[in-house]
Amino acid sequence: MTRFWVKAVMAIGVWLALCGSSVLFAQEQGNSREGSIWNVALDGSGHFTSIQEAIDQAQDGDTVFIRTGRYAEDVTVHSKEGLKVIGEGPEKVFLAGLKRVGTLHIGKWPYGATNVEIRGLTVQQHGGLGVGIFNGSGVTLKHLTVNGFVFGQQVQNVRIEDCVIGGSETTGIAFADSQATLIDNLIHDNDHGVSVGGTSIVRLERNVITRSLFEAVLVADQGNATLIQNTLVGNRGGVKFQDEATGRVAGNIIDQARVGVAWSVKNKVAVSHNGLYQIHVKYQVDGQTTSSESQAFSDVYVAPKFVAPDRGDYRLQADSPLQHVGGFPFLGAFGPVSE
């Protein structure tokens, strides 16, 4: 895993996200079908002023609700099942690290965490790590902003959804020996956007990955990655498979890159129905340029016609040619806008 480890070391309102947040505000403490609710507020109006204290008090199935503020602390969630940690929103709740490497840890050796959900806050990385997920299963990160690196090791059924992740000193999101789904995220301004290593199995769907110094997605070791309807734009490379990695790349837009898709003859990779544009080398096998006709005859090579790419709006215009390609209603992460 040497090569993998070298790289591996927009928000919706809280009222929709919280599913009954008015109850959380109204209750100082109470029991519901989902357990107790613990409020955290820096001004002392809640049960706790510290997120960690609330998590330590919480039992399986409880909810920790975090009110507006900047929390300078290290937070760990472990040995919990069904716990929800919910902030008022990424623009209101800011979690900053204090001393250790990693601001937010989910799971802890040898303990894990099961069916834990974290949402509605911003995490600032500390010591080169924003969120670390170690051991356990069923971890969901939703409506988070992470200014830094997200790393998962030996975790199963991780779901990262509707998050904004970027500005890492290394990789945006990396997994080792894990299973995860990434959907509807913006991953920006990292070395690699996503790294899949070890024996990880990762599915990426409808994500935007942009401004990576190297590949948007790197799959190494014995990792497996499925990329369906993602928009990879403005990265040095699109998708790269190396070592014994396998996967599928279909229905994506890859725009503005030196190499579109790269792999080795020993990699089992299926490539079909992608839109490639402004790519210096569309396909590269074992470092050699390969003709598109022999590798991915179903791919299309036309301008995607984004709405406003200079402003980061990668929705397709109504007359985009990247509609009804293969079995996809449209390629990339966003459908066409109405005329």
Range of strand content = 35-45%
Average per-residue pLDDT, rounded, comes to: 89
Residue stretches low in confidence (pLDDT < 50, at least 5 long) are 1-33
Through-space gap between termini: 49 Å
Helix/strand/pairing category: mainly beta
Q: Level of helix content?
A: under 10%
The coarse silhouette is globular
Which CATH class applies here?
Mainly Beta
Number of helices: 5
What fold name goes in the CATH topology slot?
Pectate Lyase C-like
Instruction: Please tell me the total number of domains.
Output: 1
Computed CA radius of gyration, to the nearest angstrom: 21 Å
Largest sheet: 19 strands, mixed
Would you report the number of β strands? 35
CATH second-level architecture: 3 Solenoid
Notes on the protein architecture:
This protein is mainly beta. It has one domain: Single-stranded right-handed beta-helix, Pectin lyase-like (Pectate Lyase C-like). Helices cover 9% and strands 43% of the residues. The strands form four sheets. The chain has a 19-stranded mixed beta sheet that branches. The protein has a twelve-stranded mixed beta sheet with strand order 1-2-3-6-9-12-15-18-21-24-27-29. The protein has a two-stranded antiparallel ribbon with strand order 32-33. The protein is globular and about 60 Å long. Residues 1-33 have low confidence and may be disordered.
